[in-house]
Amino acid sequence: MKHNEPNPKPTAGGTPSNEPPNHRDVIACLLGRQPAQVVDVAVDLWERLAAGLVVIIGTEGFNALYDRSLHLAGEAYPWLTGEPQAGAHAR
């Protein structure tokens, strides 16, 4: 099954439904298939997301959204910003 095809999910009666796949399930499936290539899969997913958003909000809008997201996520995960973390030792 391709990740963009409807995901037949069993219903209460046991028959599959044609609901769109849950995004978390798609990501887990893609990452689970190729654990050695997690970076490639993640980059591919980001590129697909960027392509879809650029059509709607333009390149500048996407860049602004990306920068803001990185800034907010960097508060919880400082390693995302690329800045040295407090307590990190230079080697």
Short recap of the structure:
The protein is mainly α and 91 residues long. The protein has 2 helices and 2 strands; from the N terminus they run ββαα.
Any overview of this molecule?
The longest helix is centred in the middle third of the chain and has 39 residues, at 38-76. The N and C termini lie far apart (46 Å). The chain has a two-stranded antiparallel sheet with strand order 1-2. The protein has 91 residues and is mainly alpha-helical. Helix content is 55%, strand content 4%. It is extended, with a radius of gyration of 18 Å. The chain folds into two domains: 1-33, no CATH class; 35-80, no CATH class. It has two helices and two strands.
Main features:
91 residues; 2 domains; mainly alpha; two-stranded antiparallel sheet
What topology does this entry show?
Layout: E1 9-10, E2 16-17, H1 23-33, H2 38-76
Antiparallel strand pairs: 1-2
Number of helices: 2
Q: Strand percentage, roughly?
A: under 5%
Cα Rg = 18 Å
Coarse morphology = extended
Looking at how many chains there are and whether they match, the oligomeric state comes to single chain
Number of strands: 2
Cα distance, first to last residue?
46 Å
**Order of strands, widest sheet:** 1-2
What composes the largest sheet? Answer: 2 strands, antiparallel
* Run of helices and strands: EEHH
Mean pLDDT rating:
76
The low-pLDDT segments are 1-15
**Residue share in helix:** 40-55%
- Tell me the domain tally: 2
How does the helix and strand content classify structurally? mainly alpha
